[in-house]
Amino acid sequence: RSLPKGDLLFLLDSSGSVSYYEFSRVKEFMWDLVHPFTFGPKDVQTSIIHISTTPTMEFPFDRYLSSGTLQQAIRDTQQLMGDTNTGKALSYAKEKLFSDEAGARPDVPKVLVWVTDGFSTDDISEPMQLLKDMGVTVFIVSTGRGNYLELSAAASQPPEKHLHFVDVDDLPIITKELRDAILANRLHAVDITSSSFRLTWPKLLSQETGYYTLEYAPIDDLARKRTKQVSGAHTSLLLSNLAPETTYEVALIPESNVHYFPPQTTRVTTLAEEISPAQVLISESAPHSFHVSWAPTLDSVISYQILYGPLPGNSVKLLEVDGKSNSTVVENLAPNTTYLVTVTAVYKSGKEKSLSAKACTQEGDQRTQPSNWGGMREGEGCSF
Fold first, then answer.
1. φ and ψ at 251, to 5 degrees?
2. Backbone CA torsion sign across 175, 171, 9, 32
3. Region (Disordered): which ranges (predicted)?
């Protein structure tokens, strides 16, 4: 699973306040974080900017497009020492993240991972806000004390997903969680069923700065496009009434009155439709009753109807049970008799699905046979 596309920038504290040991551990962490990604002009591109007296770009986004060359480039990165001018480095990062000559691409998600010992000599709040206003998602990993309030305001919201405080030796503990959060930093689907899925996306807008348009259609029938609009405060939407086993093309278009944000697209395939009842079982047979059960139970079923009558014959009775039930007992039956039992699921959509099974009552005292069954001939016993 890799980011389909994205420019990932590491903002690396390269100043004199970081020990050689810490710097080497952070380099290992950077490589661990990105090594599962696929690199290339259509996939992930990555770059490093040093925080020092003057910010410096280690290599442009489009230089290392294979795992091997990138791993070596991270290993070869040398600490610059100097001051911790993070605000300066953030302003520089904003230029580079959107610059052709730095190898950045105009229409892909932008992610900044700032690894800091929590200390900065200049103001970070204004340049960081500008980056976020341009749609950059900011993750912060603090290996020092750091001012929690300052850093949680600097990270993208909500901070519990975007800000990590961790000892430099414990960086491997957060690697997977951070990688998953970076992967989730784009339009993607969760909770996929046969008829619905939930779309989630990074927070690009607010209630005040615009709204989102969502377009979706089956990939083999794009003319059947449907459109929804949601406020800029939303970061997820449930799409329902979809066809089973169908691939949908989905586009999220942020309509911002502040900045242009490129549309994000994804493809989602719904699951095969589950059908109920897929099986009907008869058990606990007695002279005058038996137990009927069925599976699976589905949220889309309102009720089950159980129709039963002796074979041969045309006299039937009906039992109705709730859609959450998966069994019932049928009573007042004739002994030593074959019954046809049909379980019908009534779906919310109005459609019905039936499945039948034969049931046989045990031999018993003939005098207790109920008289209300038509169609039984004398001596007609169980046929199996």
1. -125, 135
2. negative
3. 358-384
The burial of 192, by beta-carbon neighbours within 10 Å (0-12 exposed, 13-18 middle, 19 or more buried), is given as: middle
Secondary structure class of 120 (helix, strand, coil): coil
- The pLDDT of 57-64, averaged and rounded, is 93
Residues 237-266 as b or e (16 or more Cβ within 10 Å = b): bebeebeeebebbbbbbbebeeeebeebeb
DSSP 188-243: EEES--SS-EEEE------TTTEEEEEEEEETT-GGG-EEEEEETT-SEEEE-SPP
E-strand spans in the chain? 6-13, 44-51, 56-59, 110-116, 136-142, 163-165, 188-190, 197-200, 210-218, 226-231, 236-239, 247-256, 264-269, 279-283, 290-295, 301-310, 317-322, 327-330, 338-347, 352-360
> In the predicted model, is pLDDT for residue 146 greater than 80?
no
Name the residue among 233, 238, 252 with its Cα closest to residue 198. 238
As given in the structure block, the two tokens for residue 19 are 């020990």
pTM, entire model: 0.63
| 34 secondary structure, DSSP code | H
d(CA 384, CA 335): 14
Q: Which amino acid is at 28?
A: E
Give the C-alpha distances (Å, rounded to integers) separating 200 from 178, 191, 234.
Answer: 17, 10, 9
| Greatest extent of the chain over all pairs of C-alpha atoms, in Å | 104
Asked if 190 and 238 touch (Cβ cutoff 8 Å), the reply is: no
Query: Could you report the per-residue pLDDT of 72-94, keeping only the tens digit for each?
Result: 999 999 999 999 999 999 999 98
Q: Rg of the Cα trace of the chain?
A: 32
Cα–Cα distance for residue pair 137/360, rounded to 1 Å: 66
Residue carrying structure tokens 């990105």:
34
Q: Model confidence at 382, in pLDDT bands (50, 70, 90)?
A: low
Contact partners, residue 307, CB within 8 Å, separation at least 6: 316, 317, 318, 341, 342, 344
CB-count burial class (<10 Å; 0-12, 13-18, 19+) for 198: middle
- Compute the distance between CA of residue 344 and CA of residue 304 in angstroms, rounded to an integer: 5
